[in-house]
Amino acid sequence: MAAAGGEASTESVSDELFQNFYTEVKQIEKRDSVLTSKQQIDRLLRPGSSYFNLNPFEVLQIDPEATSDELKKRFRALSILVHPDKNQGDPERAQKAFEAVDKAYKLLLEPEQRKRALDVIHAGQEYVEHNVKEKRKQLKKDGKPLDVEEDDPEVFKQAVYKQTMKLFAELEIKRKEREAKDMHERKRAREEEIEAAEKAKRDREWQKNFEETRDGRVDSWRTFQAKGKKSKEKKNRSFLKPPKVKMEQRE
User: Fold this and answer.
1) Alpha-carbon distance 138 to 189, whole Å?
2) Disulfide-capable partner of 82 in 97, 106, 127, 205 (CB 3.0 to 4.6 Å)?
3) What quaternary arrangement does the UniProt entry report (predicted)?
4) How many Cβ atoms sit within 10 Å of the Cβ of residue 239?
5) 103-120 per-position pLDDT tens digit
């Protein structure tokens, strides 16, 4: 009974951590929201940003459950902060950072795209929660204390963050693979189309040339036949010509 009670207690702690996850994220976002223009640009262009920035909520530093008005306000504030006009000392990097913010905002404006992003985040959370439960089951089976490292709120948050980033990255890799495959298929189809068009052109040119030279070929054949006939007649006349008679000499 004690073990069961301990398990229920630790599971309730996990649920509480799970529920408080975004509250902690909000606090971090509130702290980071005061970053300077340069710091925001550095954040958006840090090494690995091509994958970090796949999470639009991470780019905008906003709660996934934020309202449309909150989303709009956050975009406006962040876009002004990293806009090239405000960062004339580093316009190229500012432009890239602004494009990342703009892309994330536009993606979240589309209901279907926003739902997909939320699904990825929820999947990451569920994975970590499931992993925590599996660890506790194994600890219980081994007769050990049911404490796990994810009991620490910071560790739990980081685990969810890493898993979410991993899922976003996997989806992006699959998307690129599909895109490359589609491009290859389109290229192959185009090459086949060009080859078929060239073959049809060659066939038409051959047919045209055949038609244009047909009369000449017929005339040549007739001439050849006529010459052959005359040669045969001449040969026949030679064959039928009587032999010459030699005159006898008189003494």
Assistant:
1) 54
2) 97
3) Interacts with SRPK1. Interacts with HSP70 (HSPA1A or HSPA1B).
4) 7
5) 999 999 999 999 999 999
